[in-house]
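dumping this here before i forget
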Amino acid sequence: MRTTGLRCLGVFAVVAIGLSACASGGGSGAKVDASCKPAHKISTVQEGVLTVALTNTPPYSLQSGNKIAGIDSEIVNDLAKQECLSIEFAPYTYATAVPAVKTGRADVAIGGFDRTAERAKQVTLSDPAYLDEMTVMSKDGASTVDEFLGKRIGTVEGYLWVDALKKLNGVETRVYPDSGSVANDLKSGRIDIGIDGFGAATISTKGTDFKLEVLKKDPRVPATSEPSQTAILIDPKESDLATTLNGLIVELRSNGGLAKILEANGLPASAADVGSPRLI
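structure:
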């Protein structure tokens, strides 16, 4: 869903989490037991550690206490467990996570990133993990671009539809750093309509009377033509890591594990049916 950024954040709180079934303990600073045997030989930024650039956008990825949670996080957790890795993570915005992976400060970035051609030039994209649709949050159930006219709309930086929304005549488009900020302004009335991925919109509007509608196809917003395929971003120097992660995604899809992860985080199981890989 997100485009690339130009710089990384300056200071982060980094938390190490032991995730393997072989770990000697949980929580911050846990170490992986020497008896744990990784399923594959892979290299990471730090030996024995998977360094994660975490974007805080539920349900795709978020920090929960001293752990990572959400759809992408569950996939990454499974990877770490399989490969006997602990996890260190730091919070990034969508604008800064891509360069962190590109320059090798993080092994992976998570948060429901779209598989875009521009992004593929900078980092390695995992195989498609799941689908997410452009979703409109409004009081009256808006579902067409024409219903945006004369309105103040808000969305999150980095979504593939941001530029198209900015070009709409008669629409004031505001761009926010995260889903929570969009939801806050929508609830306060500072914007009339919010636009997010389906999963994030479901979380943002929980307990409110806002209606959710997938935006109908419209040539003015090319992202409406088909749901976005999401990916985990991978350090381009770590080809073995990419191969291993892709293998895990295939396994989770075939054994039903991915569908369970999606349903547990508010997305339909059908979102695991991604079709052929594509770049947008």
